[in-house]
Structures are given as C-alpha cells and as structure tokens.
Amino acid sequence: MTEKRFEEHIESYLTTHLHDGLKYDSVHHSHYDRTLCLVNHEVIEFIKHSQPESYQRWQIQFGEQADEKLLKRLSSEIQKEGVIKVLRNGIRERGVYLDMVYFEPKSSLNPEHQTKYLCNRLSVVRQLHYSTQNEKSIDMVLCINGIPIVTIELKNQLSGQSIIQGINQYKFDRDPKNEPLLHFKRMLVHFTVDNDTVGMTSKLSGAETKFLPYNRDIVNPTVDDGYKVSYLWKEVLTPNSILDIIENFVLETTESEKEWDDKSGRVIEKKKDLLIFPRYHQLDVIRNLRKQIKAEGIGKYYLIQHTTGSGKSYSIGWLAHTLTSLYQNASDKNRIFDTVIVVTDRKVLDKQLQKTLRDLEQTAGVVKAIDKNSEQLKNALANGNDIIVTTIQKFGVIADAMSKLKGRTFGVIIDEVHSSQTGETSKKLKKSLSVNEFEEEEEEDFEDILAREILSRGKQKHISFFGFTGTPKNKTLELFGRKNEAGQFVPFHSYTMKQSIAEGYTLDVLEHFMSYKRWFKLKQEEGKEDLELPEGKVKKELMKFVDSHHETIRQKVAIMLNQFVHHTQKQIRGRARAMVVVRSRKHCVLFQQEMVKQMKALRLPYSCLVAFSGSISHEGTDHTETTLNTENGSQNNVSIPDALKDPRFRILIVSNKFQTGFDEPLIHTMFVDKKLGGVQCVQTLSRLNRKTNGKIDTFVLDFVNEPEEIVEAFQPFYTSTLLTGETDSYKLYELETQIKSFHLFTKYEVDEFCKLFYSERQSDEVLQPFLNRAVDKWAEIEDDDKKEEYRSIINSYCRLYSYISQIMDFQDAELEKLFIFLKYLKKKLPKRKGSNIDVSDSIDLDSLRIQKIGEMKLALEDKQGELDPIAESGSNGKPQEEIDLLSSIIQKVNNVHGIHLKDEDKIHLNNVYVRMSQSPEVQKVMAGDNSEANKKQFWTEMMSKFFLEYINDNFDFYKTVEAASNKPIISDMMYQHFKKSCQAQ
C-alpha cells in the first residue's frame, strides 16, 4: 500500500464525479509553469471560452504577445494582491476587464450567468514540481482556471507514515522565502492528510508553521465505504464546494493584539495578517443552516452551541452574509430575508465581530453598525440596510418606532444567547419587528389587542432567530432548540468544549484545581445575652461574619500571594497574571486593601488592580475601581484590560465585572472566593482557557466551592447539551387556581383593569383603584407567613407565564389578563420587612485556619449533557425557620468548621510561642533590617527547632504541628501575634 495508490484513489473520485455540472480534470505536472506559478493553457482556455469578447479586445491591445502579457499580469497580480482578491475581482489593463472565476448564480433568472459558471475549469495536478531551484514536488495541487489554490501532502499509514511526517515536510522541506507558490496568500490552504486524519494551515512559516486539526470530530468517525477522511474530497474540495468557499468564506484579515512594550513603557497594538480558511464545523453549520432555512422558510429558531475556540465571530459573520443572499427557490426574485440584524449582548459593540463582518463585505455599505443612538437604528431600518449590527439594549429603546415596519422579513443573529435575550427584552425585539399591525381604520376592542399581544410574544412567521452560545440554559434550549423524537430539546449544531480542548484551541481549566477549606471556632463573648434567633439566618450571618473578618481575608491573601510568587509569576515566560473572584463589591475593597498591604510588605515589584461597577462605601469613604486603582499607581485614563498588561500590575480582583466576556490570555491562575454554580461557574473559570505563546496550562485555587460542584456545573456543557423535556404549561392553571383562592380581587376587576390598560388614556390614575383595593385586602391578612406565600405564588405565576408565552403558541385570554393585572399588582405590594441580624458584637472568631485540601484534576464524563425544564411550584412560600439560641447555633457551626485541638496541645503551642518570643536570637532578627519574607522564613525555621524537642516525649503533638497542611498556618498565626505584640509595646 503506497501513497501513489492513495493519490490515485482521490484523483479518480475528483475526476469522475460531477457536482452541479462541474468536475476536475487531470493535468500533467509538466504543464505547470514554475516561474509564473500557473497552468498556462488552463488560464487561456478559460478566458477564451468564458469571455470571448474581452479576450478579443485584449488581443487587439497586445497583439502577438497577448497571452504572454495576460499570464504575466495575472501572476504578478496574484503575487501582489493575493489569490483571493484576484479571483474575486479579476484583472484589468488598458480598459479590458477579465474575470478569473464565475460563482454559482443565486437564482436561475440569469441563464447567461449559469453558462459562465459552467465554463470554470477545475484541475488536479499530481506530483507538482513547484521549485525553480530543485525537483521537490507536492503530492497534489488543485487549480481553478489554471490558478493553484490548494496543496495536499498525502501519507499512507499502511506504509508506516502519518500526517506528522506531512507536517514536518511542510515545516522543514518547503521554505516559502524563495518559492513564489508557497508565499503567504498565494494559496488558499495547505492540507496534510493520512488515512484517518486531516491537518490544515493557511500560512507556511518554516519551523513556525502551525497546522490545525481539520476533522469532523476529535477523531474522524469510521465510514462504511472507505477512508475516514473521504469527506475532504467528497464534501470540502468538490467543484461546487471550493467555489462556494472562494466566494463566501475565505477571508483576508488582520488580527490586533495588545501587548506591553518595554521600550515605550506602554501598551501597544500589534497587527498580523491572517488568511482564514473555514474550519470543518464552521463550513458544516453554515451549509446545514442554508439547507434547513430553504426547506423550512422563515419564522424558525436555530440554536448553535459553539464553545470558546470555535471561531464564533467568523461563523456569525459568514452566516450574516449568507442570509443576505439566500433565495428559497432558484426562480425567486426576492430574498428570504430583507434585513439581517446581528445582536451582541454587550453595551459596547464587539469590535472583533464588527471587523469580521466588514472584512467579509464585498460590496460597500452592506454592513451598518449602530454605535451612536436609536435614531441611527431607525434610519438603518428605514433605508433597508442588508446587515445591521447593534446591542440588545438598543432594541428596547426603539421598540415602538420599529413596530411601524410592515411586511418585512428579518433574520436575527444573537451572539451569546443568555437570559437577557429570552426575557422581556426579546419580547420587545419581536414586537418591534412584528407585522401584526391592524390596517383597518375601525376601532379595536381590548380583546383584539390582547390577542395581538399574546401572538407578539410567540414565534413570528417573518422572523428567524439564530442563537450562538457555548453554555445554553434550559430556557435557551426550550426557546431556541429543536425537539427530537424523544421530546427533548437539542441544539441545531454543536462544536463542543471537549473538541475545542482536544484540538488545542482552548485549555482545560479543570486540569489543575486546588481546594482549600476554612476551619474556625466561634465563641460567644462573655456577658452577652443568649438570644433566640432564626437558625438559618444566623448561620448565614455567622458565615458572612467569618468570611468578611480581617483575619480570614489576611490569611486568604497570604495564601494567594504565596501561590502567585512561587508558582504563577513564573508561568507564560514570566508574564502570567491572576484573577481573584470575590463575592461582593465590598470584598473587592477589603481584598484590594489587604493585598496592597501584603505586597508592599513582601516588597514585590508589582501590585494589583480591582474591578467592580459603581461605588461602595467602606469605613466612611466612597470607593470606586478608579479611585482605588489610581491611588495604587494606575493612570486614570488607562483601561483596566490595558493596565493589567503593565508589568506593574499582575493580579486583578473582580466581583461580577470581567467574570464573563473578558479575554486576556495572560490570565493563568484564578483564586475563587465566591460561590459559583451552573453557567456562571463555567463562564467564570473559562476566563483562563485562552491560549497564547508560552501558556501550557492553567490553575484554579478555590476557597469556597466543592470540587464535585465544579464538575456538576461543567458537565452539561462538556459535550452537546439537551433539555430532557418541555415546560408543563398546565402549571399555570394550577397557579391561577391558587391565586384565585386568595380572594384579593375579582374576575370583573381584572377585566375592567385590562380594558382601561389597553385604552387610550392620558394618565395611569384610572388603574390605581383596582390595584389599591387588592393591596388593602393583602394588608388585612394577619399571618405574615401567608402574605409571603401569596407574594411568592404571584411571582411564580408572572415568571412562568412570561416564559411560556415566548416558547408556545399559547392563546388563553384569561391567563393573559391575569398576567397583566398581577404584573402591576406585585409592584405595589409592600416590600418584605427586613430582618437583618447583627451577630458581630455577640461572637468572637477563635482558632481560624485555612487549610489546603489538595490539588487534583477534575475529570468530566464523555456523555451528553442534560438540563431539566423550568419548574415553578405554587406552594413555595418560605417555610418557618427554626428558632435556636445563639450559643447553640455557634456550637453547630463549630461542629462543622471547627478545629479539634486538645487542651494540652494548646498549652504546648503556647509554651513554644513564649520561648520563641523571648529568644534573643529571634528578637535580633525581627528587630533587624530584614525583609518581611526573610523574617517569616526565619520564624518558621526556628519554630521547627522548638517543635523538634517534642519528637520523643510527645510524638502525636509533633506529628500534628509539623504536618504540611498545619505548619504554615500555625507559623503564620504565631508570627502575626508576635508582630502585634511588638507594635503594642
């Protein structure tokens, strides 16, 4: 079995199978012109047959040298502009325009275009000798109209070689510097292929060449009738496919990357040229969508579950441009979609997404970015721009103005589908695009308007939605997903987290996970009253007290800095950064102040930044991220992402802000001091997964979450995700029955309220009496628990109705009226009475230690992820909490979190401390001009010497205090106590 037979097999398929009237022809390598990098006779024959009149004018201009001039002009233009531009734009000289390719017509209304399309000449050249300096050859080269566009190096595993040898051949045997054919942008793509695997690159750079996987999955699945890689020549490289790729997919672009420049002492922007050839899953999703939209028409929903590393911006760009030129049938005059709207869920338009759309724009003015105000969007819609790019926030602002649009069709692409697109904002968006405007002049009654409102929440026949996300929630799956035969909701297309990690596009953030636990005892201060308090709330307050206590934060910061200084800062060639995720804005301030203090004590040459929204008051001072960062040396006009690239700032402390949507590849380590779950957990930890040169792994140190909880959060999104069933709409009727049993209002009052609500009115005054009467009846209820139960059921009804009305053609006027009434009633109900419990004066924190549990790799199962549908329970009023004495509650907390040292152990520890603190040697070092780090190291060494004295007489004590998990904590606590004693003197 040889490579030659492999070549023959592929060549045979390409040259014998027609695709839309086109097939490849075999051309002998001797016809290839090594100097011009063209198959000369193929170029001339294509132009002669496809453009006889233009060819004739060219001959008149250049006479006997016409063909020679044409070939040289074509070759130099490709060398200068790249093959993509020349194929798309053709060449011109002395007023003569020559097209170099004809793409498949979008409709059959122009027969001449179809004839020209069939003039394309596709050829396959085997063993193409490309060099003018030697006889090196490439196994296969594909050409379009005499212009080489694809190279393929084949390896047959049955002869003992694989794509590894092919990759090395491209890297080390094919120097692009002196070989015109191998220059960047001269070819669309270079493939290396063995019997099972495909690799791809669009740029040869010698030893620096990077080949990317080009497989259908992590491992190509077995096929019944041939090679696992046969999809390459049967799907991707067929004549109609390669022409489609040239016309609609391959893309020349530049990528900007910000980095710190030592010379200028600031962040600079570096750009590099890229040639993007679509990856297999990108080609697959766009083509499947094309096919499905043509089959189904307008008004359907499509969920694309593509994770980080999938090249989502390019996929969205290709889809947007595809939708603008899509016809349901070849004979149609009108496109399926009049306007395509790309929605990004960010207040500032995604620059990468905008740039991709503009790079793909082959006709100026197709793409309109809405980056100013709502008036700009109104004008774009009125002018009928093909592609409009905006943020979800702007749809709500101009919903009324857009509702005037009638009879238009829309494709709405949503970048990162989350709950903000599946809630009230999306309803406004749908309503704004609705054609359900009554054109009759006669007056409508409120029942008609109500019916329209219900329909406007449902799926619209003239709007198709395309949602992209890597972490779909159950709501998202039910709204955007597709129901399979088992009644489950699944994505239309998937590119999984598992595949992205396996193919090297992202890193596995669970590979290095370290868990810490805090252990403590709480003691009630003497003389304080032993109060009876709600047990659950007190436990929560006790834990909040512990986690906000200065000593807790001090120890956690010490652990973080120890990890960062000794491990993290050495990563990514000394450029690594860390993110600290804390539970609140106040904790941002507390951690930042403590971290700055400890960094200065350690004399570190760098400090930290903090990021949170708004301002927070602490100890009488209002703090913002700007005030804290500028006080710490950051320039006021430098953004946080740019400041983090500055070597003077290596750690970023965040609360909510930057937990999602922040792409900084230098972040290697994450310290988590916040409860995370579900999608938020995945999105937060995924801040680490971006790759960059020198970054080979990541690290997570978690103080709060159990490893099993992290795995539980990630598991549904590791492979593709499904929803196990649909939301049960009957729950609405159950909730309705419960609400009616409250007797807060009558059906008549709801009907009258809705009539007035939908009528033309100058003020909301007429609505108030209906709501006020219901509020008065609610206030008359004596049992506070009953009140809260009713409130909870009303909230459940409103949430569930709001959701179900989006996903189902759900038309029940009575339920809609009840929803409208309750939506406003719940806003008027008195707020819950707060029951804040302050335990800080009643307890004292004793014996705190934060202990390392261990480092581990968290493994995910290779199985389909499952989510359950939304469930709203009517009887979810909060149960009455148990009342318990404060002292008893403290005891319960200690049983879980306490340290169980014997009394005699405490005596031994105290003896060691007294002897150390009185030691002249210790006092000399501590009082001397030594760094904080050296003092702490000396203290620990001395403590070990004192502990060693117990090895014979009390080995159990020695073993406990010298344990790797206990010794650093004991040493640190003693050292801090010694420092305080010295300061007090």
TrEMBL record:
Domain Helicase ATP-binding: 293-490
GO molecular-function terms, A-Z: helicase activity
Protein name, per record: DEAD/DEAH box helicase family protein
Claim: Nucleotide-binding is one of the keywords in the record: yes
Matching PANTHER family: HELICASE SUPERFAMILY 1 AND 2 DOMAIN-CONTAINING PROTEIN
Alphabetical keyword list: ATP-binding, Helicase, Hydrolase, Nucleotide-binding
SUPFAM superfamilies per UniProt: P-loop containing nucleoside triphosphate hydrolases
